[in-house]
Design brief:
single chain; four-stranded antiparallel sheet; globular; 2 helices; 11% helix; 47% strand
Length: 367
């Protein structure tokens, strides 16, 4: 081979090798940049924009909603008390009756019925609405708290009594008959019925005083007082295997007995979280660093104005792990054209539903 040709071949080979090295460096540089889009706390790095788009589910102003697990139909109560069903994109009025002073709603396990509380939290009036029969069934007078049987759409536990002495009872919705379980010397209590044989009885949330929690064992007919806690609010997964608790100004993962498993590095109210098979999704302040832990529950329960909110995901957690869980941003509120205030999140069929507490509109995000 002529000497000049050898020199040209060597130069071309060097150029090709150099270009290949340049492409490799660019690839690994970009890969490193993508991997570092999250900071050491698992939050998205500043400047990253969420690509997820909000989709409006209904134009109505909504008080609260629930989902029928069997049909995937969405049911909701409007601000004036109308009860609606949203199925395959079509909305239908189930009850046009106006309901004043809505307090809260609680759907049955399968979503075919809903317990509606109206009036002041300390002196509410309860009624069950059957979405199939489209009829109301009132609970007995002087009912102060109630919770559905987690395995039935026909049985409710409720507290009844006009003074400090209360009775814990069962109510059969079909027969409208009650049976007393036990008497309690307690006032202003709420109920959580998470496991088939266990009913939790606890003081209503207060940011000024410690609250007592008691456990009633239905099978053994025993009552166990578990102690006092300050600043407590709880939300359970539907199967009762674990839940979330706001305790001592921190979000905690708890086991089926209410014991703390581990902490979660997120300032968010349990009421604003949803469970899926692999993730927990929560609405919380977009700027977590500057968010006050002391005001998380107070602002949520009093429905007072809150700072810009985002939606966070707690990924691939193991309920038996003792390691602290970290949250990443699932939907960046700072990147959205309209500020959001996500409350009551629900995960269903690879979609995340939530109410915007500011506009009272129902939105969804694709998971």
């Amino acid at each position: 081979m002529p000497k000049n040709l050898k020199i040209v071949v060597i130069i071309l080979g060097t150029l090709v090798a150099s270009f290949g090295l340049y492409l490799a460096l660019q690839y690994w540089s970009n890969s490193g940049q993508n991997a570092n889009d999250t900071d050491s706390n698992g939050s998205l790095a500043s400047g990253q924009v969420s690509t997820r788009k909000l989709a409006s589910v209904s134009n109505n102003l909504i008080f609260d909603f629930w989902v029928n697990e069997k049909t995937s139909d969405i049911y909701y109560v409007t601000l004036n008390g109308q009860i609606m069903r949203l199925s395959a994109g079509s909305e239908q009025v189930l009850s046009s009756q106006a309901i004043p002073e809505l307090n809260f709603i609680l759907p049955s396990a399968d979503g075919s019925a809903v317990l509606i509380a109206i009036g002041r939290p300390q002196t509410p009036t309860f009624s069950v609405f059957d979405t199939v029969k489209r009829s109301f069934t009132p609970l007995p007078a002087n009912t102060t708290a109630a919770a559905w049987d987690p395995k039935s759409n026909n049985r409710i536990a409720y507290l009844r009594g006009g003074g400090i002495v209360k009775s814990l009872n069962f109510f059969d919705v079909s027969s409208k008959k009650s049976s007393e379980l036990i008497k309690l010397n307690q006032n202003d209590m709420v109920l959580d019925w998470v496991l088939p044989n266990v009913i939790y009885i606890r003081d209503r949330y207060s940011d000024k005083a410690a609250g007592t929690t008691a456990t009633y064992d239905i099978k053994n007919k025993t009552l166990d007082i578990t102690g006092e806690e300050i600043n407590t609010a709880t939300k359970w997964r539907l199967d009762g295997n674990y839940g979330l608790k706001w305790l001592n100004n921190s979000l905690m993962l708890i086991d089926t007995n209410g014991r703390v498993i581990t902490g979660i590095d997120l300032k968010a109210a349990p009421q604003d979280c949803a469970f899926s098979d692999a993730f927990i999704y929560c609405g919380g302040a977009a700027e977590q660093q500057g968010a006050s832990s002391r005001n998380v529950l107070t602002a949520r329960l009093k429905n007072s104005s809150r700072a810009q909110q985002s939606i966070y995901a707690i990924p691939s957690f193991n309920p038996t792990s003792q390691s602290e869980l970290f949250a990443t941003i699932f939907f960046d509120g700072n990147s959205n054209e309209t500020p959001i205030n996500p409350i009551h999140l629900e995960s269903i069929n690879k979609k995340l539903l939530f109410i915007d507490g500011s506009s009272h509109k129902l939105y969804q995000l694709t998971l």
